Amino acid sequence: MTFRQKHLLGIEPLHPTEITTLLDLADSYADQNRRGIQHKDVLAGLTQINMFFENSTRTQASFELAGKRLGADVMNMGMQASSIKKGETLIDTALTLNAMHPDLLVVRHPHSGAVDLLAQKVNCAVLNAGDGRHEHPTQALLDALTIRRAKGRLHRLSIAICGDIAHSRVARSNIMLLGKMENRIRLIGPPTLMPSGIGAFGVEVFEDMAEGLKDVDVVMMLRLQKERMDGGFIPSEREYFHRYGLDAAKLRHAKPDAIVMHPGPMNRGVEIDGNIADDINRSVIQEQVEMGVAVRMAAMEVLAQNLRSARGPQGVMA
Ligand code: ASP
Fold first, then answer.
1. Distance between CA atoms of residues 115 and 127, nearest Å
2. What's the CA gap between 276 and 155, in Å, rounded?
3. Residue 239, CB half-sphere, CA atoms under 13 Å: how many?
4. Which of 4, 115, 151, 223 is most buried, by CB atoms within 10 Å?
5. 32: number of CA atoms within 13 Å, CB side?
6. Could you report the per-residue pLDDT of 42-100, keeping only the tens digit for each?
């Protein structure tokens, strides 16, 4: 197995062969999930704690399901009502966690870098389930698997990522992953939603949807991340939909077999027309959710293997 990491904190440190290792394993889990095959032995005896300091629907449910399918004891810590709200620091949280001896810790946090910090303080494998606008590695991996299954490959594709790039950890992780796998990446959005210095990532930037979508294989839409905006980034949602919302007319500029993606949650009528999102001939949004479970199973399996070999036969860290 080629996966050397102790944690999954982001796409940035991953080598392309590590990405392929994860995708291959996830691909087989996706097929086995469809056939209802269980693998309760893989994480048997291990404890997985999910700590979500920020709301989540798909990601939390999918990590929980993935852990349970592999036989882990899964616990969700309700961080909305926790002692963090009472002023506990991240370091105190880490100490508390260490006393509980988890093996896998899944963390979502509103601040970029908070998950990395926690990973330095705990004695278990940490999976980043989204930190601020920094990274969301399992989302990029599930997007990659969805693309690979739909297009038959994950290289030399032309991929458009559209909308609120500036506030999106999904965009950041995808730009890194798809770039490492040698695809052509086009970013489309208003200048107010484009991060400065983005050209350094080897991407092409467009302000106009018709131009940017021309002949692309994949159209990835992003949600307007209003919770991370501290001012007026767009004139109005109506105007935004008119210029940047994906509808049938704009999609016509892409290749006739281009697929449409969205990480969810979707704002229908803001960044995407509901009819496009529901069009089973173009939209792979439901496949993305399905691949999410498989990718998280794969990620937890490889990290658990590395954890077990680091701990050795006695079960303690060297
Ligand atoms: N669910 C994704 C995330 O947590 C995308 C989004 O929220 O728009 O980043």
1. 8
2. 25
3. 6
4. 115
5. 18
6. 999 999 999 999 989 899 999 999 999 999 999 998 776 565 666 678 888 888 888 99
Residue type, 146: T
Beta strands in the chain (DSSP E): 47-52, 73-77, 104-109, 125-131, 158-162, 184-188, 204-206, 218-221, 259-261
Determine the Cα–Cα distance for residues 312 and 318; give it in Å rounded to an integer. Answer: 7
Amino acid at 140: A
pTM: 0.96
Q: What is the best residue among 11, 54, 111, 139 to mutate for testing ligand 1's pocket, by most ligand atoms within 8 Å of CB?
A: 139
Residue 283 pairs in a beta bridge with: 260
N- to C-terminal Cα distance for the chain? Answer: 21
Contact 167, 225 (CB under 8 A): yes
CA of 228 to the centre of ligand 1 (A): 11
Q: Which amino acid is at 315?
A: G
Residue 59 CA: which ligand 1 atom is closest?
Answer: 1
Tokens (6 digits) for 32: 């086995």
